[in-house]
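step=encode ok
step=design start
structure_in=
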């Protein structure tokens, strides 16, 4: 009898251990993505880590073999000798919401979530919350205890990326405006900006690493592989990077930002809204005043153009003729002369039925003296300035020169957004971090720079040669995670020329997404376009109901289709070096039973000439489109009645 009792107890323990072990993985609702929590056997002092798998065919294959976990707090360590005390029951997460701008307006995503509860040697608690979404994995840390103020001294999250994994990485700088480099090894060891794109050695899966849900309780981070080449560690700001404390100050209870890994096909990555999905819902009750749209912009062609009243009026006239709702008064509007001042300019802009936007210096750095300064730095400054803007009828502000990712600067960004919302002022950031999901929380945040855009044709010769490939990397990296103010569509030249074709430039109006899209060329650049191209730019939306990657590969070529109401717009760009590309354009994405009138504007005989064709297509149609070696095409499909 006693023997049977002992045997029964042993079996119960065995079954309990097996059941516990089975709960150490979480699989997405569509059964494609899996995150597994692991611990080296027979080594109590070793750290726990995550593994990410993706189903190709019938089996799950490992795409990231190890993601180190852990935090070091000012009072104690939460990485070594952690004991797993509890695995909470799986929860289903459903995100359904409506966006105002972005890749699609109606958002829907689901995940399965497990919380793993740990204790360190001091019995202090750390939770790791892991979600497997239909398009990726997200996880974050939680300190559930109720009291205490501490400093996070280090985050130990680190992604081990196998050798021969193809990778696109941008070297970190505080403006996030460098070029992406492509390699299949980790031989270069540096600080890297988010997002980072990877293709598995087997060429059967893509993933993009980022962070989201950043709030006042943390700093923005970057990746660094200086210590171990194949291990990309989440890295806090360096003390020398701008002003303010480098290390984040936290108050318990506390939750970190989400670590985000978008996983799937290349189309899954490009079309994903996961960065927004894990971020906080909108804090605004009324959003009727938020109006995305196209703006004319004089800085690209006239660096000091806003100092000149007549230049400002010329760009207002351009916007009116092109049916664009906005014109931007960039820096130095407080020094306007040559026939009028700011008030005169705004009166003229309003007389055309347009809405003015205005530039501001963040005023966070004394050595950046571009005017106007000291109008956004404090709450009192902002209230005074936003009150004036309301009276003037100004609809949005562009705020520049943040150049820090420390916690104090995150506070500043969010202070601006919260104050602007009280005055129904739209906002976009320049000289800034890349998106972290704030466009969901604060939908009046229209766009960010955080990219090497067309402005760089002013700064030096580098973009001229780099632009064709660079433009073909951004749809798979930077623009995946949020709106991107590249300031596209330039047919004439700035200080340094472009070598992309006119059709390539026209296509960027579709390929790149931004809640406010600044089309950057001078007025004659648009006046001299043929009717079809000019009409295209009059009508192309900036708000999309749907986005689809039809074909492409980073750095080589891109074909993206975006839908607005019943119309589809397609943009294609090429950077295949020395040869033209015959691009198959398959219309199977169109609905059954409908015919569409296609207007196709593609490369002509050389790079400054368009070829325009008209035809009727349906979802069984397919055509070939010629793209020059640095060329492209733009198309619109309108349903026939």
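sequence_out=
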């Amino acid at each position: 009898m006693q023997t049977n009792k002992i045997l029964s107890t042993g079996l119960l323990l065995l079954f309990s251990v097996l059941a516990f072990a089975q709960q150490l993985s979480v699989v997405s609702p569509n059964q494609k993505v899996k995150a597994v929590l692991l611990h080296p056997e027979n080594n109590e002092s070793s750290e726990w880590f995550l593994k990410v798998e993706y189903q190709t065919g019938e089996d799950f294959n490992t795409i990231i073999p190890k993601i180190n976990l852990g935090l070091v707090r000012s009072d104690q360590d939460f990485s070594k000798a952690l004991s797993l005390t509890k695995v909470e029951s799986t929860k289903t997460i459903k995100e359904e919401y409506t966006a105002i701008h972005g890749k699609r307006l109606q958002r829907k995503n689901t995940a399965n979530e497990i919380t793993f509860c740990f204790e360190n040697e001091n019995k202090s608690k750390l939770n790791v919350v892991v979600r497997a979404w239909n398009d990726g994995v997200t996880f974050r840390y939680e300190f559930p205890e109720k009291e205490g103020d501490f400093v996070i001294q280090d985050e130990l999250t680190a992604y081990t990326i196998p050798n021969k994994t193809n990778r696109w990485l941008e070297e970190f700088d505080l403006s996030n405006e460098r070029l992406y480099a492509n390699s299949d090894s980790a031989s270069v060891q540096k600080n890297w900006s988010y997002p980072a794109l990877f293709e598995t050695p087997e060429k059967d899966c893509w993933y993009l690493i980022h962070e989201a849900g950043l709030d006042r309780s943390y700093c923005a981070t970057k990746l660094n592989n200086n210590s171990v080449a194949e291990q990309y560690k989440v890295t806090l700001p360096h003390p020398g990077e701008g002003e303010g404390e480098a290390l984040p100050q936290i108050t318990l209870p506390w939750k970190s930002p989400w670590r985000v890994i978008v996983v799937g096909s290349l189309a899954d990555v490009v079309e994903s809204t996961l960065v927004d999905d894990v971020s906080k819902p909108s804090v605004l009750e009324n959003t009727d005043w938020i109006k995305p749209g196209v703006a004319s912009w004089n800085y690209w062609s006239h660096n000091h153009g806003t100092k000149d009243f007549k230049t400002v009026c010329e760009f207002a006239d351009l916007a009116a003729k092109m049916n664009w709702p906005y014109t931007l008064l960039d820096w130095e509007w407080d020094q306007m002369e040559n026939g009028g001042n700011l008030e005169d300019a705004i009166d003229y802009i309003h007389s055309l039925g347009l809405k003015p936007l205005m530039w501001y210096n963040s005023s966070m750095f004394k050595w950046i003296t571009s005017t106007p300064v000291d109008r956004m730095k404090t709450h009192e400054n902002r209230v005074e300035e936003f009150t004036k803007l309301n009276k003037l009828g100004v609809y949005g502000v562009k705020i520049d020169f943040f150049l820090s990712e420390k916690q104090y600067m995150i506070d500043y960004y969010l202070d601006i957004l919260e104050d602007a919302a009280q005055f129904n002022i739209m906002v976009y950031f320049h000289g800034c971090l890349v998106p972290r999901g704030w466009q969901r929380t604060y939908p009046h945040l229209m766009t960010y720079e955080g990219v090497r855009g067309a402005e760089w044709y002013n700064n030096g010769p580098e973009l001229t040669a780099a632009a064709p490939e660079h433009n073909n990397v951004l749809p798979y990296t930077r623009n995946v995670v949020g709106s991107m103010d590249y300031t596209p569509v330039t047919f004439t030249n700035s200080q340094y020329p472009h070598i992309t074709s006119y059709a390539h430039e026209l296509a960027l109006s579709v390929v790149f997404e931004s809640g406010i899209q600044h089309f950057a060329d001078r007025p004659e650049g648009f006046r001299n376009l043929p009717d079809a191209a000019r009409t295209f730019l009059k009508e192309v939306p900036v708000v999309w109901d749907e986005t689809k990657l039809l074909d492409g590969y980073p750095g080589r070529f891109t074909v993206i289709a975006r839908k607005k109401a019943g119309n589809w717009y397609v943009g294609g760009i090429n950077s295949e070096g020395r040869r033209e590309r015959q691009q198959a354009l398959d219309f199977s994405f169109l609905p059954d039973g409908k015919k569409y009138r296609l207007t196709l504007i593609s490369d002509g005989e050389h790079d400054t000439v368009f070829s325009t064709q008209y035809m009727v297509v349906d979802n069984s149609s397919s055509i070939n489109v010629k793209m020059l070696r640095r060329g492209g095409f733009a198309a619109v499909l309108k349903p026939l009645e």
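step=design ok
step=annotate ok -> Residues 2-22 form the longest helix (21 residues).
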